[in-house]
Design goal:
The protein is an all-alpha fold and 83 residues long. It has one domain: 434 Repressor (Amino-terminal Domain). 58% of the residues lie in helices and 0% in strands. The chain contains six helices and no strands. The radius of gyration is 21 Å and the shape is elongated.
């Protein structure tokens, strides 16, 4: 949708992103085999790089879920400890 809103052809975006047109079409169709690097290149080509930063912001729910799965050691490590 972002490409169409900008009135850009698939060939134009593919060229700007440095990917094949067929790869761009696969990406737009939701093909899970397209690399994350390709997705990022296309986002940069469309000027959506700020969206990447929004994804990387503090994710409170994700942190809570991550903390629930952390295993706490029962004792301190033996490195540098006082005997």
């Amino acid at each position: 949708m972002a490409r169409l809103r900008r009135d850009l052809s698939a060939a134009q975006v593919a060229e700007r992103a440095g990917v094949a047109r067929t790869t761009l079409i696969r990406l737009e169709n939701g093909d899970g085999g397209v690399s994350l690097a390709c997705l990022l290149k296309v986002l940069f080509a469309l000027g959506l790089d700020q969206d990447i930063l929004a994804v990387a912001k503090d994710d409170q729910m994700g942190r809570r879920l991550q903390d629930l799965g952390l295993v706490v050691k029962a004792r301190a490590s033996k490195k540098g400890g006082v005997e």
